[in-house]
From TrEMBL:
Protein name: Peroxidase-related enzyme
Residue span(s) of domain Carboxymuconolactone decarboxylase-like: 51-99
Pfam families reported for this sequence: CMD
Protein keywords: Oxidoreductase, Peroxidase
Organism whose genome encodes this protein: Leisingera caerulea (Phaeobacter caeruleus)
Length: 190
């Protein structure tokens, strides 16, 4: 386990001082979340990398989409469960608990999304994300058609694929660097 004072097992200290716009962003995180997520601290050794990461994350997870914020967080948790990414399971499990108001849903998705009481749309979305995570080369038109039949547009399918792909990438980076979740996540929305 990584030293809790460092966000990862790598010796990559944050830029010091942080550029004013980065410091402002971190201050907003502290104010709104009560912490600066360790994933941001981990990327802050190189402000260009931090900006690329946050730009992609904010676009995928917060921008307008046919997917709700909860649905995008559900994808993050299911992908992270398959990949056994400790950081993302803790952080995004907390987000699912918060957005859904249902601590049990967050736990079910962490352990096995198939036991969760999902509607047909959510189940199709998570089945697709799971298949993309474990066997992306096997995705076929029938898989995309299954999403369309569940009510997703082609733009929604693009968003599902991109959120899934982003978390597959970030899970691997978090695991490879032994990224540690902020302790605050563990008790949120339980």
């Amino acid at each position: 386990m990584t030293d809790q004072t460092q966000p990862t097992a790598l010796d990559l200290p944050m830029a010091d001082p942080l550029p004013p716009e980065t410091q402002k962003y971190f201050d907003i995180c502290q104010e709104k979340l009560g912490m600066v997520p360790n994933v941001l601290k981990a990327n802050a050794f190189d402000i260009n990398k931090l900006n690329a990461f946050t730009g992609m994350y904010n676009d995928l997870m917060l921008a307008d989409s046919g997917l709700s914020k909860l649905e995008r967080e559900m994808i993050a948790v299911v992908v992270s469960s398959i990949n056994r990414c400790f950081y993302c399971l803790v952080a995004h499990g907390a987000a699912v608990r918060q957005l859904s108001g249902d601590p049990q849903l967050g736990e079910m998705l962490v352990m096995n999304y198939r036991v969760a009481p999902l509607d047909a749309r959510q189940r199709a979305m998570l089945d697709f994300a799971a298949k993309m995570t474990t066997a992306s080369a096997e995705i076929e038109e029938a898989d995309r058609q299954g999403l369309r039949a569940a009510g997703f547009s082609d733009r929604d399918i693009w968003d599902i694929a991109n959120v899934t792909g982003f978390f597959n990438m970030s899970n691997r980076v978090a695991s490879a660097t032994a990224m540690v979740p902020n302790p605050e996540y563990h008790s949120q929305c339980r």
